[in-house]
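$ ./design --mode recover --in tokens.txt
reading tokens...
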């Protein structure tokens, strides 16, 4: 479970991607304004793990007749070892009793919660749900709730998961909190994005964002430089090179850039990938408030306009004084 700073919920799809609702975000593109809180029931707990976003992908079909209320938020740094919630890829689990959870209001019009709440709600057939919501998009939406009301998600729970056990007893996400008439009103069940109908698109977007929860057993050729390069304190940019050869055509649209930089204040660092023709791709900006150590992560770059073969460089500059470090290693995975 994840709490997002704009007042929505979400679920960890991969260690670097949060699955949430499209209506919780405004558009696709670079976005560093969202803070994700993970790992706690109490949002005020000092053990909370927080990450800022660096990119948002909003389902382009959401605002069309196709619908599909889902989005992915990429975190600036992955949450290593995060508990992931797999998504349903078939309709086999679109029935029964579901669990919903979030930090949203406990009553209609009420305050947001400090502590995570959960509830159980039963599946409502499309034919019944459409009586309450005639414009419901049955191809991509699923409903859950009691005829008498009383139990429901509410304002602030948007984007959070609806889930149940699969046949192996493992949790699986079947819905994303989308909309409803008020909260827990009789004959107005909650409406959720139907994950099984959207799974293929979610998986494809996740791959493009560098967050495939099922790693490719054959990820492609790897070109790596393991030589250490010292990064001058508040000095000129330094670079480490890898030479790519034997590749046909251009680099892929999801070129993976694995980075291992040891540094005592990673907010000091600006990191770029330099293509053989000199084009720079910004991987990381400096941030004076990011005092954590090290940059150990994988970035995804759309390098499809670049010829694959040639010398690629990882360029790093320390823009603030007092802390130091070095490039330990880095690699390109095609």
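writing sequence...
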């Amino acid at each position: 479970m994840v709490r997002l700073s704009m007042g929505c919920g979400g679920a960890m799809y991969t260690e670097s991607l949060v699955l949430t609702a499209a209506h919780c975000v405004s558009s696709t593109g670079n976005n560093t304004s969202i803070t994700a809180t993970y790992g706690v029931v109490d949002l005020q707990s000092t053990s909370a793990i927080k990450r800022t976003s660096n990119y948002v992908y909003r389902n382009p079909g959401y605002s069309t007749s196709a619908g599909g209320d889902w989005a992915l938020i990429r975190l600036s740094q992955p949450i290593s070892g995060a508990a992931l919630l797999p998504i349903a890829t078939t309709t086999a689990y679109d029935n029964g009793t579901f669990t919903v959870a979030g930090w949203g209001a406990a009553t209609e019009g009420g305050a947001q919660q400090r502590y995570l709440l959960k509830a159980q709600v039963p599946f409502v057939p499309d034919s019944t749900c459409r009586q309450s919501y005639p414009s419901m998009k049955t191809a991509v939406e699923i409903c859950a709730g009691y005829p008498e009301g009383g139990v429901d998600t509410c304002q602030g729970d948007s984007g959070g998961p609806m889930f149940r056990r699969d046949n192996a007893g493992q949790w699986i996400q079947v819905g994303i909190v989308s909309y409803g008439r008020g909260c827990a009103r009789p004959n107005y069940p909650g409406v959720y994005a139907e994950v099984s109908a959207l799974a293929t698109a979610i998986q494809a977007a996740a791959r493009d964002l560098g967050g495939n929860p099922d790693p490719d057993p054959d990820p492609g050729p790897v070109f790596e430089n393991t030589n250490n390069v010292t990064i001058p304190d508040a000095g000129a940019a330094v670079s480490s090179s890898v030479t790519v050869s034997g590749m046909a055509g251009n680099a892929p649209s999801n070129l993976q850039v694995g980075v291992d930089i040891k540094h005592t204040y990673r907010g000091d660092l600006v990191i770029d990938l330099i293509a053989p023709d000199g084009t720079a791709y910004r991987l990381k900006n400096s941030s004076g408030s990011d005092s954590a150590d090290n940059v150990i992560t994988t970035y995804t770059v759309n390098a499809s306009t670049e010829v694959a073969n040639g010398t690629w460089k990882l360029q790093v500059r320390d823009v603030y004084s007092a802390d130091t470090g070095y490039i330990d290693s880095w690699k390109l995975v095609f």
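exit 0
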